[in-house]
Design a protein that fits this description.
Layout lengths: L1 E8 L3 H12 L5 E3 L13 E2 L9 E2 H14 L3 E3 L3 E5 L5 E5 L3 E10 L3 E3 L5 H5 L5 E2 L2 H4 L7 E5 L3 H11 L4 E6 L8 H8 L4 E5 L1 E9 L2 E9 L4 E5 L2 E4 L3 E3 L30 E3 L11 H22 L1
Parallel strand pairs: 1-2, 1-8, 2-5, 8-19, 10-17, 11-12, 11-17, 12-13
Antiparallel strand pairs: 3-4, 6-7, 7-8, 9-18, 14-15, 15-16
Helix pairs in contact: 1-2, 1-7, 5-6
The structure holds NADPH dihydro-nicotinamide-adenine-dinucleotide phosphate (NDP).
Length: about 300
């Protein structure tokens, strides 16, 4: 059976940054890309807030750059999905794509989180053409335009408030007759004149043409319908961390995010480190994920050195 010194699971900014650092430290990392090679950034359009790209960068192009940088230092990047892992003893036993078995001395988990979508066919059709799950990433493209944010939690309120600073009008589409968000967030929303909260509405359809989103058809809980004219449709109905593999093996919080110790990347199992959105329900930025990938690589390097 193949024995890997440092196994990295996931290919977003956290995984690739961990790969760059661990390969430069001669840990011969093997990285499995997972279901969505390149991670969430490959579904966004342009990234303007990652330091070092003054003109902005396409999400796919940035991930291709990170991949090349990891390859340059010798990371063994493989297509494949880790289908099971046994963290009960070291070296850890890993199965890839349900068939290939390997063992790993240390593991860096960077499997990320996935934004929740409503699941409408029209929403999928306009993804990247007006439908987005990240106001911080894409809001700038809707300056002085009208947009909608779906959701009534803290994220929705935060995104609506952010968008209100850029956009002409922001609809919040909330399925309940109240907001779930904290009082302070709610107050900010209600104090922002260009945010209009539409309570008890669900989205039936995202409307659009060849240029992208043009509106949304909403249904009230009393059965009545209304159509809003918008250019951007933002989902803020939560994320789910990709931690199914680790349930019952690592300490997870109530939402399923991996719990790490203090400012480190150390999980509840020695030799297993977590980086990026899989352990971060709050910041969820490419740059914070990249930073935590670096932390995980350094923690992993120290761990492996101490084993000698
Ligand atoms: P939440 O789970 O708190 O809220 C999700 C929202 O989306 C709810 O209003 C929910 O409605 C709604 N929703 C879920 N599914 C659907 C659907 N299918 N159709 C329509 N609406 C839907 O997620 P958040 O991302 O807002 O927050 C996650 C965690 O992060 C929370 O603990 C939050 O407090 C925290 N957070 C804190 C921040 C801060 O302190 N600055 C900023 C952002 C997040 P319903 O209420 O009906 O279930």
């Amino acid at each position: 059976m193949e024995n890997v010194k440092c196994l990295i699971i996931g290919s977003g900014p956290a995984g690739y940054t961990a790969a760059i650092y661990t390969s430069r430290a001669n840990l011969s990392p093997v990285l499995y890309e997972g279901i969505e090679p390149g991670g969430q950034l490959t579904t966004t359009t342009e990234i303007e807030n990652f330091p070092g790209y003054p003109e902005g960068v396409d999400g796919n192009a940035m991930m291709a750059d990170l991949r090349r940088q990891a390859e340059r230092f010798g990371t063994d990047i493989r297509t494949g999905v880790v289908s099971s892992i046994d963290l009960s003893a070291r070296p850890f036993k890993v199965v890839v794509d349900g068939e290939k078995e390997l063992s790993a001395e240390a593991v860096i988990i960077a499997t990320g989180a996935s934004a929740r979508y409503l699941g409408l066919p029209s929403e999928a059709k306009y993804r990247g053409m007006g439908v987005s799950a990240c106001a911080t990433c894409d809001g700038f493209f809707y300056r002085k335009k009208d947009v909608a944010v779906v959701g009534g939690g803290d994220t929705a309120c935060e995104e609506a408030t952010y968008l209100a600073s850029l956009c002409r009008h922001v609809y919040m589409v909330v399925r309940k007759p109240f907001l779930r968000a904290s009082k302070a967030m709610q107050e900010r929303v209600f104090a922002t004149p260009n945010i209009e909260v539409l309570f008890e509405y669900n989205t039936a359809e995202v409307l659009g043409d060849e240029d992208g989103v043009t509106g949304a058809r909403l249904v009230h809980s009393d059965g009545s319908e209304r159509t809003i004219a918008i250019d951007g449709f933002f989902l803020a109905i939560g994320h789910h961390p990709n931690t199914e593999l680790f349930k019952g093996q690592l300490d997870l919080d109530a939402e399923g995010y991996i719990i790490t110790q203090g400012a480190t990347s150390k999980t509840s199992v020695e030799g297993v480190f977590a980086a990026g959105d899989v352990k971060d329900p709050h910041y969820r930025q490419a740059i914070t994920a990249a930073g935590s990938g670096c932390v995980a690589a350094l923690d992993c390097e120290r761990f492996l050195l101490a084993q000698k």
